[in-house]
Amino acid sequence: ARMAREAGGSVVVVTSRRTPGTAIAAMESAIAGVGEVHRWEAGRRENPYLGYLAGADAFVVTGESESMLAEA
Asked: Which 3 state secondary structure label does DSSP give 11?
């Protein structure tokens, strides 16, 4: 959030089916006012993930997600 504020940008967090609820709550709190959290949901048809990737200037990817790192 600090990096986004300093750069005049925003933060978008995309969760996965493995993201714990406590982590989601912590991220929502940390980026309040400068971003949004897109929560993964089973059966959801719309998924802005590829659009977020295309429009991003920087990425932060968790260490256990090799596929997200490759996509970024």
From this structure: strand
Phi, psi of 61 (to 5 degrees): -125, 135
pLDDT by 10s per residue, the chain, length 72 = 898 999 999 999 988 888 899 999 999 999 999 999 999 888 888 888 889 999 998 888 877 777 877 887
If you write DSSP's letter for every residue of 22-57 in order, what string do you get? HHHHHHHHHTTTTEEEE---TT-----HHHHHHH-S
Residue 1 near residue 31, CB atoms below 8 Å: yes
Model-level pTM?
0.77
